[in-house]
Amino acid sequence: MIRAAVLLLYNLLLPLVFLLGFPGWLIKMLKRGGYGTGLLERFAWYDESIEYEPAGVVYVHAVSVGEVMIALKLIYQWQADYPQDRFVLAPTTTTGLLVAKEKAPVGVRVIYSPLDFSWVLQRVFKRFEPKQIVLIEAEAWPNMLGVAKRMGVPVGLANARLSARSERRYKKFSGFVEPMFGMIDQACVQERADLNRWASVGIRRDRIEVTGSIKFDQLGAAGPQRRGEFQRMLDVFGEGRKVVMAISTHAGEEAYIGEVVQNLGEEVLYVAVPRHAERRQEVARSLKGLGYEVVLRSAFHEPRESEEACLIVDSTGELRDWTAHADVVVVGKSLLGEGGQNPTEAIAAGVPVVAGPSMGNFEPLVSMLRDAGGIAIVRDEGELLSALRRCLEGGVEVARQCGSALEVLHVHQGAAARTVEILRKD
To answer: What keywords is this UniProt entry annotated with (predicted)?
Structure first.
């Protein structure tokens, strides 16, 4: 009864929220190049004839690039263990969709995630007849859960994490949240601390199991690989130069880090990889203001003065392999932003990692890395400069940092395989 009332209220408000948010959504789509990528699929209108669609699928719902990469890792593992299973992967954002289409295994149907209207979801589920729905991390939409429940389709969370802050926020709306999360059939969570948190917001305690983080699981996954194409680009700036790479940066961080790098001398090349590629012109302006000659990866050309130039990697889905070309990586959204970004790809590449003080989105991993000496945490420009100099010099201390970081990641090995076994048994 309570669940029905919550869904009724949600469906009364949803059309109004959609109408108010639709113009902003279209503007964002325009900025990110989303038109012409199958936008009507969000309303369950498809070009593909239904008789050619896979049926009886595992339907995997992801949001953006980060969640899509986790979903792909899970799907690859699932296919290796159960090759007869078929999949639909449904990202929400344009960038996530493009990465999914580029990197999905053969035979995986990639669609735009449908809007959370019951009639839309019913059309989608009728088309693909999912035998199971997997939600990556915590992206649980009320009507998706409700329609799945009515159709008898089990729903599982994969790689789920719930911070103490999010738990407190959910509890403020417990009357709405708990009936929704109560429809989750299985939750695979990253850390032991997540067990009680998820149980407190409505998922039955006996349906929650700790698997570790798929994002941090390096078992069976090819590590970051050096690409000849990338190395040839870097060599244009001068062969043998050390590379300081700032990854997944947010507003202001490219210039903040870039100004520090200028103090390291001409033998060091600065490479910035913004979190959102569409910020390329904003980033370029900020670095030109520091005196850099800016070269974009998307419009690559030989710089006039290589010693004064930097490279902006304004691409999507390439970060993993770019990190293999770095001599030291600085993690974005940790110096001027809030919460930090994922350091594990650089760690897997054997590259020393430096981050700012704000890495809360990756706790407890970052605390474990810090305690083990596997990451350098800096608070200001002076500490950043010192950390970069130390990492570029190399030696026993830096090798120990990289080795300690890999040992911390070891606890998450096998997370993808454990997740598959738990979800599939339902």
So the answer is: Cell membrane, Lipopolysaccharide biosynthesis, Membrane, Transferase
50 plus 144 within the same structural domain: yes
How far apart are alpha carbons 366 and 340 in whole angstroms? Answer: 10
Decide the pairing of beta strands 268-274 and 293-296.
unpaired
Cα 197-346-162 angle, rounded to 5 deg:
10
Phi-psi region of 220 (alpha: psi -120 to 50; beta: other; left: phi over 0): left
CA distance 194 to 160: 8
218, 154, 182: which is closest to 424 by C-alpha? 154
Identity of residue 188: C
Is there a single domain that holds both residue 152 and residue 298?
Answer: no
Residues 6 or more apart whose CB falls under 8 angstroms from that of 56 comprise 86, 129, 130, 131
Residue 106, in any domain of the structure: yes
Q: Could you give the residue numbers annotated as active site?
A: 67
**What does pTM read for this prediction?**
0.75
Same domain, 190 and 233: no
CA distance 134 to 149: 13
Buried b (16+ CB within 10 A) or exposed e, 263-276: ebeeebbbbbbbbb
Q: Residue 298: what are its φ and ψ, rounded to 5°?
A: -75, -20
Q: Do 294 and 360 fall within a single domain?
A: yes
Question: Token digits for 380?
Answer: 């200001």
Structure tokens at 142: 């009320």
Domain that includes residue 76, residue range: 1-210
Integer Cα distance of 198 and 175 in angstroms: 15
Q: Are 145 and 6 in contact (CB under 8 A)?
A: no
The one-digit pLDDT tens for each residue of the chain (426 residues) are: 688 888 888 888 887 877 777 677 666 666 655 555 577 899 999 988 898 899 999 999 999 888 999 999 999 999 999 999 999 999 998 889 999 999 999 899 999 999 999 999 999 999 999 999 999 998 889 999 999 999 999 999 999 988 888 899 998 888 888 999 999 999 999 988 899 999 999 999 999 999 999 988 876 556 789 999 999 999 999 999 999 999 999 999 999 999 999 999 999 999 999 999 999 999 999 999 999 999 999 999 999 999 999 999 999 889 999 999 999 999 999 999 889 999 998 999 999 999 999 998 888 889 999 999 999 999 999 999 999 999 999 999 999 999 999 999 888 889 999 999 999 976
Domain of residue 46, CATH code: 3.40.50.11720
* 66 Cβ contact partners less than 8 Å away, ≥ 6 residues apart: 215, 342
- List, in sequence order, the alpha helices (H) in 289-414: 319-322, 344-348, 365-372, 381-393, 396-409
Query: Are both 127 and 202 inside the same structural domain?
Result: yes
